[in-house]
Amino acid sequence: MTGAHGISGLCDDQPVEDNTRQRRTAALRGCDRILSGIRPPTMREHLAVLDETGLLDDEPDFYGGGPMATLEERVAELLGTEAAVFFPTGTMAQQVALRYGADHSGRDAVALHPLGHLEKHERHAYNQLTGLRAVWPTTEPRNPTADEIAALAEPVGTVLLELPMRDAGFVLPSWDELVAVAAATGAAGARLHLDGARLWESTVHLEHPLHEIAGLADSTYVSFYKTIGAISGAALAGSADLATYARVWRHRYGGMAFQQWPAVLTALAGLRRELPLIPGYVAHARTVAAALAALPGARVYPEPPHTQRFRLWLPGTAEALNEAAVTLAEEEKIWFAAGWQDADVPGLAMTEITVAAPGLDWTADDIIEVGGRFLARVSPS
């Protein structure tokens, strides 16, 4: 996804021809109503957000400090950790977290899920850069259970959970399941690391605040451009010892840029603006999902959604559904859902739905009515 909530359905590594992307972006920007995602901000709109922080007259960061230190303190406060360290990318932050686990345990194996971000979207950086090996506790489309962690065939330095697991449908465990996995990880002598790129969205389903979720883990990564809407950036949170280690390896990996204040300030603004709104997005996602599931031939997963995002399947090819989405936007100024991909299920294509501020005005009746018009463009008969 891109931006605060993504151009509906565009995946992190999904190739899109420039002219297709430009047409889709132009159509979305011209819409009066948006069901899934947000209107992608221009660079000028991104920069206008910087003034919201009230920090533009302060000194910028110089290889750290300044507003970066303010952001790090805010994240540590939210997650209840001793410290947090800003990184330019989540990929870099997670490599440092896994390296820390290997260095401190002497174990070069990491318990990962084959659908996790590190396996599917990071070009196996944990192996190519650090020489770590993956052990898969399960191949089921969910995070591993405590029993599966206890049954690992070899010792691992880190157990990694992705909360929520995006490529399984933005799914989360229950709170009791998460507590049990944390206990099993500790009993195995391993560290628990949370890939929490979208952890901000997980508190409603888990029914516990951010600091209690992060409190189960030894380290937590959060993204600032996913959900929060910053230009870029991430943080790795945990102990003071981890933070000291992370700052050294951030420098070694090339992540200590001279100044990073534009990303930092948009992250601070996003935390203030979006965090209070997320529970409302998650609640409305359940209304949206139920209405979409009522469309002819539709499938929704999970139902109800665990976060403000979920998967939708509709009849048709990805090409036909994407064309229908763009022409609906161009002709009626309504953005329904795009980013369709052909699915394993014959006759269906899949996309990811993101419920954000623009989608809050849609009622179930609105969704069914516009959904019918959308499907008519795919199959007029």
Automatic annotation (TrEMBL):
Any GO molecular function: L-allo-threonine aldolase activity
A Pfam family assignment: Beta_elim_lyase
InterPro entries reported in the protein's UniProt record: ArAA_b-elim_lyase/Thr_aldolase, PyrdxlP-dep_Trfase, PyrdxlP-dep_Trfase_major, PyrdxlP-dep_Trfase_small
Cofactor(s) this protein cannot do without: pyridoxal 5'-phosphate
Highest rank taxon of the organism: Bacteria
Alphabetic keyword roster: Pyridoxal phosphate
Gene Ontology biological-process annotations: glycine biosynthetic process; L-threonine catabolic process
Domain (Aromatic amino acid beta-eliminating lyase/threonine aldolase) ranges: 62-301
GO cellular component terms given for this protein: cytosol
Similarity remark: Belongs to the threonine aldolase family.
Protein name per Swiss-Prot or TrEMBL: L-threonine aldolase
Source organism (scientific name): Asanoa ishikariensis
